[in-house]
Design a protein that fits this description.
By secondary structure, the protein is α+β, with helices and mostly antiparallel strands. Helix content is about 30%, strand content about 15%.
Length: about 450
């Protein structure tokens, strides 16, 4: 029983995707999820693949954006996460954003219905039992303390810990549309949008500077002693930390006004706060890029300074939680196996890949490696010219183990092109090369499976 089964610990995006991929390859899976028996600091439901921070999978542009390219590669690998993401899509310009509940329910239902997947609720406290010969640990950044301590003891490496912040969500009906307006940046339509997918709240210079002052003066969450030296991940920086780097930082970050024109005045505002649809009904909007560690009382007060949000009703305020990552370039081999105990593979954010789709994509690879191993068929990693291969290469050796930090997929991880290309042609050329090489890899895998 245990010899021919893959045990997957963690029912987040990576674990859910891994379970689906392995089962689709004909290998039985036991998916272990500790919720609801054991809760985490950030999850609100017991659904599989629950989205905690944002509801966005980011750009869906497969030609010009590395994230969009990863989306397409995952679709071509039969990704459950991308399939259900498409079903739960809400308008978000050129991005793929989803209704959180519809998405999680879709993933949970698909896994529950699969004849080769068994879902077991309860914590795997400590190292998996020795009789589990094939294990994928996909517990994410909120790994339970008992398992995290066991991994630390086994590897001899201190875990990498980062703070991850959650953005607030606003009831749409409480937004003053006499001040705010609908528009996507540069009126970009995107695959699920109309060019008017974001609610924009404008600020003049005086309002912006008053907002920054209030932000910096607000009461912040105090850290416990063991958290004080934990660094922030640059890709999910709290707004007040960004603001502390200089008064213009937010205006050139999440509050940049470029590509937007206020129809109430006919002018480009000095700064803009954008809100993106968070559910299919269009009743909830999250404040884009506004992760925060402000205390709840301070959040309500400061965020209501934003023009159009003076009477805002918050469905959820922002928050902060600590994330845990392993030093993957030092600890994992090229097939995501733990060098100190090869029966254990790792997938998802715990490996140091940052982002929803990045995490799920590593779930695809971990499952395919594990399932091929059980089936006795040789397998290789996807080419480094693909988004999947580039991300895998980064976390299993491409990154410097001494300075390793979580990383989103980006074209900087890909091998350079051969030949000369105009600057505007480079990304499309890299995307074409990636999809051509991925197609060969996928076709080869299909022949192996047959």
């Amino acid at each position: 029983m245990h010899k021919d089964v893959i045990h997957i610990i963690g029912g987040g995006l990576a674990g859910s995707e891994a379970a689906w991929q392995a089962a689709e390859m004909g290998v039985p899976v036991v998916l272990h999820e500790m919720r609801p028996q054991v809760e985490t600091a950030a999850h609100k439901t017991d659904g599989l693949a629950e989205l905690v921070c944002s509801n966005s999978f980011r750009s869906d542009d497969a030609e010009n954006n590395a994230v969009g390219l990863l989306h397409e590669e995952m679709r071509r690998c039969g990704s459950l996460i991308m399939r259900e993401g498409g079903k739960a899509a809400v308008p978000a310009g050129g991005a793929l954003a989803v209704d959180r509940d519809i998405f999680s329910q879709g993933v949970t239902q698909a896994l529950s219905d699969h004849p080769l997947i068994t879902i077991e609720r309860g914590e795997v406290a400590g190292l998996p039992p020795e009789e589990w010969e094939s294990v994928i640990i996909a517990t994410g950044p909120l790994t339970s303390p008992a398992l995290a301590e066991a991994i630390k003891s086994l590897t001899g490496e201190d875990e990498l810990a980062f703070f991850d912040a959650i953005a607030p969500i606003v009831d749409k009906d409480s937004i003053n549309m006499d001040v705010a307006w609908f528009q996507s940046r540069y009126d970009k339509v995107g695959p699920h949008g109309t060019g008017k997918d974001y609610i924009n709240c404008p600020m003049n210079k005086e309002q912006y500077e008053a907002f920054i002052t209030a932000l910096l003066d607000s009461e912040k969450t105090e850290f416990k002693a063991w958290e004080k030296n934990t660094p922030y991940f640059e890709g999910c920086m709290p707004i007040e930390v960004m603001a502390s780097r200089g008064i213009e930082t937010l205006r050139f970050g999440p509050m940049k006004p470029v590509g937007l024109s206020n129809p109430h005045t006919g002018e480009q505002p000095y700064a803009v706060v954008q809100l993106r649809q968070d559910n299919a009904l269009g009743t909830l909007y999250n404040i884009v890029g506004f992760q925060t560690k402000m205390k709840y009382g301070a959040q309500t007060e400061v965020l209501k300074m934003i023009p159009g949000l003076e009477d805002a009703s918050f469905a959820r305020l922002g928050g902060l939680h600590r994330n845990t990552f392993i030093n993957s370039p030092k600890l994992l081999d090229e097939q995501l196996r733990l060098k100190a105990m090869p029966r254990l593979r790792f997938a998802g954010q715990i490996t140091g890949c940052e982002g929803y789709v990045e995490s799920a994509s590593i779930g695809i690879l971990a499952a395919r490696f594990a399932a091929s191993e059980i089936r006795g068929t040789p397998t290789t990693a996807p080419p480094p010219t693909t988004a999947l291969g580039a991300l895998l290469g980064h976390i299993t050796g491409g990154a410097n183990a001494e300075t390793f930090q979580p990383m989103n997929i980006n074209f900087g991880l890909f091998p350079p092109l051969t030949g000369k290309f105009h600057k505007k042609e480079r990304k499309p050329a890299m995307s074409r090369r990636a999809l051509e090489d991925l197609e060969k890899w996928v076709t080869h895998k299909c022949k192996e499976a047959a």
